[in-house]
Amino acid sequence: MKFENLLVELGGFGRHQAMVILLLVIPRLTIPFHFLLNNFIAAVPSHHCDISALEAEGGLENLTREQRLTVSIPPQEDGEMSSCQIFSEPQFHLLSNFSNATNLPAVPCQSGWVFDNSSFISTLATEWDLVCDQRGMTKVTRPSSGRHFVFKRCWVMVGAAIFGTLSDRYGRKRMLLFSYLLSIFFAVASAFSVNFAMFAATRFFSGVAISGISIISIVLCVEWVDIDHRTLAAVMISLDWTAAAVLLSGIAYLVNDWRYLTITVTSQLVLATLSWICRVILYLP
């Protein structure tokens, strides 16, 4: 008797199948978490040039903070302070005639930037000054539309090829555990990155491992139900995307440091790994 026929004899979809789906849905939350993560960790807060070099030259001691910025940073066309330029020397006449601020000598930021930390304590942009000429770097690891969409496609393609082949050869559950462990390792490594190059590399391999979780879990889900219930099972396990989209914004609101946020959205894989080990110890299928 074929395994599919046996599933039909047992009812096709019962308590065991529901338990399998539940145990797979929880760790699968990390997939949409990581796909959407860069919307938060790569956010670029409001910023302006650090004016400490001009302050060190003297002459600004008796000015308020707002006045110091007025004489140090040129305005943009919309009236807001420039994010990427600073006056080569203080323009004190702007205190009395701010409308005459055009065509004044300005240079790119010389001493770094000052960021608004009211929404995010730390992001990729504030960590490595990925603003102005370097702003496009934050999009390299973002799995969204546009020319950087290829980054996502690469990790999905590589992960599908590797884990699709290995799971057929060595078994779904073994490779699922391997995917969990790799995802945890590279996610933590990316959170402790010392430069952007290390972060981009670890994010890529984290994406490869997460692709393994996606592929293997969906196959395990549909293999344990009969044909008539496979569409229902696939829809149920895919609800993790809806749940994650709702949860991630709340988590990012509470955890607004990019390193801690990266670890937080990966933490459920620790529970998944422990549950897998318990299933092996108890000889559960």
Q: What can you tell me about this protein's structure?
A:
The chain is mainly alpha-helical and 285 residues long. It has two domains: 3-43 and 139-281, Growth Hormone, Chain: A (Up-down Bundle), CATH 1.20.1250.20; 47-115, no CATH class. It contains 14 helices and four strands. Helix 8 packs across helix 10 (196-223), helix 9 (172-191) runs antiparallel to helix 10 (196-223) and helix 9 runs antiparallel to helix 13 (258-264). The longest helix is centred in the C-terminal third of the chain and has 28 residues, at 196-223. The chain is elongated, with a radius of gyration of 26 Å. The two termini are 19 Å apart.
Listing every helix as H and every strand as E from the N terminus to the C terminus, the arrangement reads HHHHEHHEEEHHHHHHHH
Let me know the largest β-sheet: 2 strands, antiparallel
CATH superfamily of the largest domain: MFS general substrate transporter like domains
Stated plainly, the CATH topology of the largest domain is called: Growth Hormone, Chain: A
User: In percent terms, what proportion of residues is strand?
Assistant: under 5%
Domain count:
2
Helix content: 55-70%
Distance between the termini: 19 Å
CATH class of the largest domain: Mainly Alpha
Radius of gyration: 26 Å
- Residue-averaged pLDDT, rounded? 80
Number of strands: 4
Proper CATH architecture of the largest domain:
Up-down Bundle
Please list the strands of the largest sheet in the order they lie side by side. Answer: 1-4
